[in-house]
Design a protein that fits this description.
Layout (H helix, E strand, L loop, with lengths): L1 H15 L11 E6 L2 E10 L3 E12 L2 E5 L5 H13 L3 E6 L5 H4 L2 H6 L4 E4 H9 L7 E3 L3 E5 L3 E4 L11 E4 L4 E5 L18 H14 L5 E4 L8 H12 L2
Parallel strand pairs: 4-5, 5-6, 6-7, 11-12
Antiparallel strand pairs: 1-2, 2-3, 3-4, 8-9, 9-10, 10-11
Helix pairs in contact: 6-7
The protein binds zinc ion.
Length: 240
């Protein structure tokens, strides 16, 4: 009986407190090249364990643009502090779909009068869920956050019906967000809001449009090359 109780207790303890707050790693910022930084935030997610989430800081001269907010308000504050400490001026953010790992910091950015952007579709979902919306929205599949520098493109549904990607033409960097899976990922990840039937087609659209990408950044996991597009297409096609 004692053993059973002890086992039950351990099981319960491991279910309820897999990660204490102080075990969640701090926001990580890593330089990808002279004008692009990767920001990675962490969260303990039920059923997945500790999950990392990627976003970018894109510099154009001294101006900084945030691609996806970190996964919490605290980490978004940290990110802003870091950007300001470098002497950069924050011009805006864009969120690549409605999930929290892309949008948790929108309200905070809004409170700091930093222009936030999302597609009209993303804003609609946020609004229906009672969450803070981006202050600016776009409707076209192809939207330039900054002309000639930062393109936001909708390749069709996949991870979610509103997922967009961000292309930096001058450096040939594609930020795929959660639509694109890391090389080490053996499945599609969180598919709660996915449109599986459209996912492989969206990956193909990216392959034909951004086939010359030098770096491809997935929403979660390690930065890779253009082969992540084919990897994702195959993972999604397997589910059809
Ligand atoms: Zn998502």
């Amino acid at each position: 009986m004692r053993v059973v109780l002890a086992v039950l207790f351990l099981l319960f303890a491991s279910m309820t407190s897999a990660y204490a707050d102080d075990e969640i790693p701090n926001l990580k910022i890593q330089k990808l090249n002279e004008s692009v930084y990767l920001h990675t935030s962490f969260k303990a997610v039920d059923g997945f364990g500790l999950v990392d989430s990627n976003g970018l800081i894109v510099l154009v001269g001294n101006d900084a643009y945030i691609v996806d907010t970190p996964w919490s308000v605290e980490d978004t504050e940290q990110l802003l502090e870091w950007i300001m400490l470098q002497g950069f001026s924050i011009k805006g953010s864009v969120s690549t779909h409605f999930h929290e790992d892309r949008t948790a910091g929108i309200q905070y950015l809004n409170s700091k009068a930093i222009p936030t952007y999302a597609s009209e579709s993303t804003n609609e979902i946020l609004s229906n869920a009672g969450k803070a919306e981006a202050t600016n929205s776009f409707v076209n599949d192809d939207f330039w956050l900054l002309a000639g520098q930062i393109e936001v493109f909708y390749p069709g549904a996949g991870h979610s019906k509103d997922n967009v990607v961000v292309w930096l033409p001058n450096q040939k960097i594609l930020f795929g967000g959660c639509l694109i899976r890391a090389k080490e990922a053996t499945n599609l990840g969180n598919t709660n809001d996915a449109v599986i039937s459209a996912w492989s087609g969206a990956a193909e659209t990216l392959q034909s449009r951004y086939g010359d990408a030098k770096l491809v950044i997935p929403g979660h996991g390690k930065v890779g090359d253009v082969s992540l597009l084919e990897h994702t297409r195959e993972l999604a096609a397997d589910k059809l």
